[in-house]
Amino acid sequence: LGGPDPTLPPPTPGERFDARDFSGAWETDHEGTNGFRSLTEEKAIPPRTPHGQEVYLSRKTARPHDGKKAVEPAFGNDPIMMCNPRGLLRLFLYTSPAEFIHTAKGDRILMTFQSQGSTRNIWMDGRALPVNPEPRWNGYSIGRWEGDTLVTHTVGFDDRAWLDQYGNGYSTGMRLEERWRRVGRDTLEAVYRVDDPA
Fold first, then answer.
1. If you compute the radius of gyration of the chain from its CA atoms, what whole number of angstroms results?
2. What residues form DSSP beta bridges with 26?
3. Neighbouring residues of 17: CB distance < 8 A, sequence distance ≥ 6
């Protein structure tokens, strides 16, 4: 609020960092999406199933997109306009920072999102994903290290959340895989894979 933006000291050539320590706040630059706030570029959105297309067309948003006209926000049905959570995937797409917190025991990693004050647990204790989870806005996440890459798997999503601000959706059967890698002192790379037959 009115103060200067925080800045890090410039990196020292050859500076070391712990590739498995994601501690701190990270902000997306939307590289790879050309600023389009979705998991991919607009032209790369995969085809929707007939059910997915029906759901997509039923969603009214202030953003014109792919055969839909924009509506005034008051006439839209975006769940975040009714004070509902964004849902995990949509949280990834906003520029508000996300902070990683490693627990002292190493049994989980917390992600806190400045946007809506949402928190996510990534369980690192070897547990399995639940078989028939009660749907939740951020799902249920487990993780493991593959070398210096944090691999997470998430299931049990609440399908009331939208994938993005254009009304693309997902079902409660969606599965999400993320691969997080710290490629530099100030750079964290994330690759997402969404699998949703519905």
1. 18
2. 98
3. 182, 184, 185
Rounded Cα distance between 183 and 186, Å, is 8
43 and 50 Cβ atoms separated by less than 8 Å: no
d(CA 39, CA 164): 8
Residue labelled with tokens 């991919």:
40
Q: How far is CA 45 from CA 74, 128, 140, 156, in A?
A: 27, 31, 25, 23
DSSP state of 65: B
| Three-class SS state of 60 | coil
- Which residues face 195 on adjacent strands? 175
For every one of its 198 residues, what pLDDT tens digit does the chain have, with 9 covering 90 and above?
567 776 767 777 778 899 999 999 998 876 666 666 677 777 778 889 999 999 999 999 888 888 888 899 889 999 988 889 999 988 887 767 899 999 999 999 999 998 888 999 999 999 999 999 999 999 999 999 999 999 999 999 999 999 888 888 899 999 999 999 999 988 999 999 999 999
Per the confidence metrics, is the pTM higher than 0.90?
no
Q: Which amino acid is at 179?
A: R
What is the side-by-side order of every strand in the sheet holding 187-195? 24-26, 98-102, 108-113, 118-123, 140-146, 149-155, 175-184, 187-195
Parallel/antiparallel/unpaired status of strands 140-146 and 118-123: parallel
Strands (E), the chain: 24-26, 98-102, 108-113, 118-123, 140-146, 149-155, 175-184, 187-195
